[in-house]
Write a structure and sequence with these properties.
single chain, about 240 residues, mainly alpha, Four Helix Bundle (Hemerythrin (Met), subunit A), about 85% helix, globular
Length: about 240
């Protein structure tokens, strides 16, 4: 991380700590999803068919999720920024084009590991690991720019109520399976306070069967202490 990036973050984060942050929760989940997937590929046993299949399946799921995430940001967030400050999101828009190209390449490299013979598989798995690491590194910096520069543009031109409405429209466009996958990674990555707020709103506004399905999805991935805090907050 460069000194310029660090310097860029501090004043905006301090001055706007209480504003509606459309990026932070899902980005926390993405960081966990990316880090876990990268670690899993790094330690995979390519001679164990089940271990290899599980690891590569997670790579495919991450790549598909990232592609949809790019689509959602392009359609809802970049559109909102362009409407009131044209050009403000040009850097991250260009990044998105490159990310989609990288996703396509990583899909092909993942398939190559699946299809390789035993002699080639070690080398191809290592190539996938290294290229996935570069993809993760690029995304970590990209998310920082979104959370600072893009948020600054949003906060300058939209009220929190308007941003919440954009967020609601974005969520309404997401298919149930994609939503559950996102929650599986996002909820454990949140602070206890963020988690309690999210589930409190969900409990009040969602059908009971939907709320219970979300709880069933995320509970196995919460530490006992985190689950205890969430259960207490929800009474």
């Amino acid at each position: 991380m460069t000194a310029a990036i660090l310097a860029d973050a501090t004043p905006q984060t301090t001055a706007t700590a209480q504003r509606f942050d459309i990026y932070q929760p899902i980005h926390k989940g993405l960081r966990d999803f990316m880090g876990d997937t990268l670690s899993r590929v790094g330690r995979v046993d390519v001679t164990d068919a089940e271990d290899l299949a599980d690891a590569l399946s997670q790579v495919e799921a991450l790549l598909d999720f990232c592609a949809k995430h790019v689509q959602h940001e392009n359609e809802f967030i970049h559109t909102a920024i362009r409407a009131r400050q044209p050009g403000a999101a040009s850097r991250t828009a260009d990044d998105h084009v490159e990310h989609l190209q990288s996703i396509d390449t990583l899909h092909k490299e993942t398939r190559a590991v699946y299809d390789a013979d035993n002699e080639q598989r070690h080398a191809l798995a290592l190539r996938l690991y290294r290229h996935l690491a570069l993809f993760v590194a690029e995304n970590l910096q990209h998310m920082h720019i979104e959370e600072t520069a893009n948020n600054a543009a949003l906060w300058a031109h939209y009220t929190d109520e308007e941003l919440a409405a954009i967020h609601d429209r974005l969520l309404a466009s997401i298919a149930p399976a994609e939503m559950m996958l996102g929650l599986r990674w996002m909820v454990p990555a949140l602070t206890p306070q963020q988690r309690a707020g999210m589930f409190g709103e969900m409990k009040a506004g969602a059908p009971a069967e939907v709320f219970n399905a979300v709880v069933d999805t995320v509970r196995p991935h919460l530490a006992a202490r985190d689950w205890s805090k969430l259960a207490s907050a929800l009474a």
